[in-house]
Amino acid sequence: MILNEYDISALIITLKLALSTTFILLVLGTPLSWWLSKTKFRLKFLIDAVIALPLVLPPTVLGFYLLIAFGPDGFIGILLDTLGIKPIAFTFTGLIAGSVIYSLPFVVQPLQDAFKSVGKQQIEVAATLGASPIDRFFTVIIPLARHGFFTAAVLGFAHTIGEFGVVLMIGGNIPGETQVLSIAIYDHVESLEYINAHWLSGILLCISFIMLISIYAVNRKFRIVQS
Amino acid sequence: MKKIFCIIFILLFVFNHLLNAEEIKIAVATNFSATIKKIVNLYEEQTGDKVVLIFGSTGKLYAQIKNGAPFDGFLAADSKRPKLLEDEKVALKNSRFTYAIGKLVLWSPAIKLGDSAVNVLTSSKYNHIAIANPKLAPYGMAAKEVLIKLNQFLKLSKKIVKGENIGQAFQFIKSGNAELGFCALSQIIGSNIQNKNYYWIVPAKFYSPIKQQAILLNKKKSARAFFDFLRSPDAKKIIHDFGYDTP
Amino acid sequence: MSIHAKFQIKKGTFTLNADLNIPAKAITSIFGKSGSGKTTLLRAIAGLDFHKNGYIRIGETVWQDKNIFVPPHKRAIGYVFQEPGLFRHLSVIKNIEYGQKRSSNSKNSMSPGYIIDLLNIKHLLDRQPQYLSGGEQQRVAIARALAYNPDLLLMDEPLSSLDENLKLEILPYIQSLHTELKIPIIYVSHSTDEVARIADHIVILEEGIVKASGLIGEILTSLDFNISRDENAESLVEAIVMDHDNKFSLTYLDSEFGKFTVGQKNLPIGTKVRLRIAARDVSITLAAQTGTSILNIFPAQISKIAPVGRSQVMVKLVSNKASILARVTRKSANILDLAPNKKVYVQVKSVALLA
């Protein structure tokens, strides 16, 4: 095997990071997307824009601001300090926090679309059949929006795996803790270790490709069933 | 309409060509950017020649040059990459020289260092210490050497955070996310940090000299002239002012 | 379990003002053109939309009052929407079980098996909704609403999204609800045909205002409302199957007007049916005609005459407690000297039998 122990630990950390981020994003993103898909709040467009920012911003901008925010004078740093929590820059927790923000639109948008596609009537039908709001959410909305959850999870996961700029800024490249695949590849390229770079890039390419294939395959299946 | 476009295109082409006749393109490692700009200003004033600067990390510039980037000269942050280019016959043989020697500094915006810098370094007063990535940046390699000399490198392995370059390491320290770290004296000078109690210029005995080397990539006369200027007393004065040594 | 509903709902320039007493164990049809506020009223009754100052009571239970608003999932209602709205992710049987599992009602309890037979959907149970025809879907939707064991069944134009053939396919099932169910049904519709077939009571809604409310036979022939002065005005007469004539293939029925003769229908003797008679198919004579091909001739008394357009009049004729409308020209009315209380004979050219 060409990969060294740091490469393997980078691979494991990347997968761990992507899994944790995806999990947190689904937990946070579900109520947020639901609210966004239903609300008639006048300033909704502002919230939409804020969530979509990571889509258009260079990740380094986000990373740069996070680095400042995490610092002892930054608002997150101050907040954590008053709560008695250790600073999170250069920690795995910090990476998760950054990734969650960075990948948020990739989870919120498919979920919001899926929730909208469920339609008002199915929910009202459930209400007239005795289902409480929470009951409706779990027995009607989630099952009907399941392709949205799948897309959201895969996109969130894949996007986190491909993340570079944010991790570059707030990760600190600590092997076994914050050194992820994309950074390891960058280091290999920069230090002319092209073979290692090839291996890791190939792995990343395969993972991403498989994830996208599964999204498109599942969405195709859904279209067939629904038509 | 088509005609107008044609004319504009031809004009641009000719104009561009005219400009090209006078100008040289130099690829420069980012850490030297402030210094080289000042030198180029002076050079352009004196000669009227135009120097176009392309900044990037030494590794990236090296890869670009190897793949045919149209640069006339290369100012690296180390000696390894210029040597490689010379060996690979991409650069001009015997044109390589050390234009600056970097000075490593231990800096902390929060903890007083002064004479007790080594004590602070070996204490547990901090959670994170920032360095440039030793694999990529000569300043990182130098920082690693210092830590090895002080028997701290392995002990600190979970505390060391690595910037991809010396600029990022500097940002880690400045933002307070790392309580202290190694950076370049040129950065301390460049960002106007006056209080000497908060930084410690690491004595040369702790690390091998950070030789920043330059090399010519073709035989263009104007490029050679600029390289000669780089070694002139005028240029050297500027280089010293920015916190570097010269041979 | 009678229902009292009172709503005053403002939606932009539209105002709905309704104060309704809906009888127990009957099909009450809320009838009106689109935009008259029918669906708004039905949704308010179900609690799907909240409106201030509403009041609704079913039997002893108050669903909405000044300080009370029972959310829809806590009301014992069955709701059949215009579109079937079957859960796309569940099979037919799972759709039916969805409400059944959540029912907390032990009254009026009908077994799912009985409901499934009633709506004839046994063969569809394992299918997914998207593979069902529109009519099949709507039958499942009705079964699903019934399986919830509601105290009140609300139906919002359940046939309007179906084409004519499918309507005819479902109507018998809805008619059968009439005799099989022990709960009141509120049936919203804009189709006279549907209403004539299934409703016992009718509430006529025009631009948010209740124009009439009462027994369907009376309202249809009252001459006070547009519906009874329309081109397609019609009367309903309750009748019972008396005898079959196999030689001529005829069925004889007894009614308040007398013996009706219709083409043979395969119905057991004693079956209660509804006869539907278009006003344009009824003519009036002063004496009982003998030399005529028309079989259905009855004595009756004129109770009211109202003009229809410039050339015609609508005549309301009664016999015992039933009434029939006849549409004749103003000229004929003049020649025959038709006037209230005058005794005449009605000739009914054609009769539709609604079983």
Textual characterization of the structure:
- The complex is a heterotrimer of chains A (227), B (247) and C (355).
- Chain A is mainly alpha-helical.
- Chain A has one domain: MetI-like fold.
- Helix content of chain A is 79%, strand content 0%.
- In chain A, helix 1 (5-38) runs parallel beside helix 5 (92-118) and helix 6 (120-128) packs across helix 7.
- Chain A is globular, with a radius of gyration of 20 Å.
- The termini of chain A are far apart.
- The mean pLDDT of chain A is 88.
- Chain B is an alpha/beta fold and 247 residues long.
- Chain B folds into two domains: 2-101 and 210-241, D-Maltodextrin-Binding Protein, domain 2 (3-Layer(aba) Sandwich), CATH 3.40.190.10; 104-201, Periplasmic binding protein-like II (D-Maltodextrin-Binding Protein, domain 2, 3-Layer(aba) Sandwich), CATH 3.40.190.10.
- Chain B has helices at 2-22, 33-47, 58-66, 80-87, 117-122, 138-149, 166-174, 185-190, 221-230, 233-241, and strands at 23-29, 50-56, 73-75, 97-102, 104-107, 129-132, 160-163, 180-184, 199-201, 210-216.
- A five-stranded mixed sheet of chain B has the order 2-1-3-10-4. A five-stranded mixed sheet of chain B has the order 7-6-8-5-9.
- In chain B, helix 2 (33-47) packs antiparallel against helix 10.
- Chain B is elongated, with a radius of gyration of 21 Å.
- The relative contact order of chain B is 0.19.
- The mean pLDDT of chain B is 87.
- Chain C is an alpha+beta fold and 355 residues long.
- In chain C, 22% of the residues lie in helices and 37% in strands.
- In chain C, a hairpin with a 2-residue loop joins strand 18 and strand 19 (322-329).
- In chain C, helix 2 packs parallel to helix 4 and helix 3 packs antiparallel against helix 4.
- Chain C is globular.
- Chain A binds chain B through residues 64, 67-68, 70-74, 77, 86-87, 89-90, 168-175, 177-178, 183, 186-187, 189-192, and chain B through 57, 59-60, 62-63, 110, 127-128, 130, 133, 135-136, 157-158, 160-164, 168, 171-172, 175-178.
List the helices and strands and how they pair.
The complex is a heterotrimer of chains A (227), B (247) and C (355).
Chain A: H1 5-38, H2 44-56, H3 59-70, H4 75-82, H5 92-118, H6 120-128, H7 133-144, H8 146-161, H9 165-170, H10 181-190, H11 194-226
Helix pairs in contact in A: 1-5, 1-8, 2-5, 5-7, 5-8, 6-7, 8-11, 10-11
Chain B: H1 2-22, E1 23-29, H2 33-47, E2 50-56, H3 58-66, E3 73-75, H4 80-87, E4 97-102, E5 104-107, H5 117-122, E6 129-132, H6 138-149, E7 160-163, H7 166-174, E8 180-184, H8 185-190, E9 199-201, E10 210-216, H9 221-230, H10 233-241
Parallel strand pairs in B: 1-2, 1-3, 6-7, 6-8
Antiparallel strand pairs in B: 3-10, 4-10, 5-8, 5-9
Helix pairs in contact in B: 2-10
Chain C: E1 3-11, E2 14-22, E3 27-31, H1 38-46, E4 55-58, E5 61-65, E6 68-69, E7 77-80, H2 92-102, H3 112-118, H4 134-147, E8 152-156, H5 164-180, E9 185-189, H6 192-198, E10 201-206, E11 209-215, H7 216-220, E12 234-245, E13 250-255, E14 259-263, E15 272-278, E16 282-285, E17 296-308, E18 312-319, E19 322-329, H8 330-336, E20 343-348, E21 352-354
